[in-house]
Design goal:
73% helix, BP-dep_ABC_trans_perm, sugar transport, mainly alpha, single chain, membrane
């Protein structure tokens, strides 16, 4: 087999594998959209069809009228945006400090950040609930903000540390010679250069919070404080699963994430690859 033939065969195999992987992701999404436009009797037909007939928007109308998912969307938005803001503030400051200052225990801190990500989330549910209940913060959106921030800030810091390392220290030294303070160097010089990394962290924390179910179902019991994931899972009842309503709610709740990713995918990819390769 010649070199050219071997390369062509390898390319064909790679494209076939990539196509199969893409289909594994795309087909369930298309089926979700198809089911969301069906009526309830259509979802239980013996021979399911891809194209709804008739085409129905009843499931989407129920999203706001029957199930009050509008309030749940707002709750998810509030908790996610607040946790994103907290994580960005602390991870940016920690990333700058860990890469710009020399102090004892710096390597141990970085190791601890990585070690903290090795514990499964289910191990932390009871400790979080115990601590928050003692200060009477359970059944509040603030409890979710605290938990989402605490569970994401370590990885956010670890990711931004890799990105802060790509910024030459000579920039700090030149600014310091001109009389700039550490905060001015951080805010006006270094921070604008790590915007792709900040965008990657923001989207990572937002996606994690938006799709999180376990903490929101345990820490919040009030109906008016439930998040969108808890509301969607509630459609899967013990006696019946309303597939068209479930798929419509899932599709509608995915729209904000899809829009954000399409708009900021350039920064997200640059942040993830840049910090990984250069760090």
């Amino acid at each position: 087999m010649t070199t050219k033939t071997a390369r062509l065969t390898g390319s064909i195999i790679r494209y076939v594998l990539l196509t199969l992987l893409a289909l594994m992701i795309i087909v369930p999404i298309l089926w979700m959209l198809s089911t969301s436009f069906k009526t309830e009797p259509q979802t239980y037909e013996p021979k399911p069809s891809w194209i709804p007939h008739p085409f129905s928007l009843v499931a989407y109308e129920k999203f706001f009228s029957t199930y009050s998912f509008g309030r749940m969307l707002l709750n998810s938005l509030v908790t996610c945006l607040a946790s994103v803001g907290i994580c960005l503030v602390f991870s940016c400051l920690a990333g700058y400090g860990l890469t710009r200052f020399r102090f004892k225990g710096k390597k141990q801190i970085l190791s601890f950040l990585l070690l903290s990500q090795m514990f499964p989330s289910v191990m932390l549910v009871v400790p979080f609930y115990a601590m928050l209940s003692k200060v009477h913060l359970t059944n509040t959106l603030f409890s979710l903000i605290v938990v989402y921030s605490a569970t994401n800030v370590a990885f956010s810091t670890w990711l931004l540390v890799s990105y802060f390392k790509t910024i030459p220290l000579e920039l700090d030294e030149a600014a310091r010679v001109d009389g700039a303070s550490h905060f001015r160097i951080f805010y006006n010089i270094v921070l604008p250069l790590v915007l792709p990394g900040i965008a990657a962290v923001a989207m990572f924390v937002l996606f994690n919070g938006w799709n999180e179910y376990m903490y929101s179902s345990v820490l919040v019991s009030s109906d008016r404080l439930k998040t969108i994931t808890v509301g969607i899972i509630a459609l899967n009842s013990q006696y019946q699963i309303k597939w068209n309503d479930l798929m419509a709610a899932s599709a509608f709740s995915s729209i904000p994430l899809v829009v954000l990713f399409v708009c900021f995918q350039k920064y997200f990819i640059a942040g993830m690859t840049g910090g990984a390769v250069k760090g």
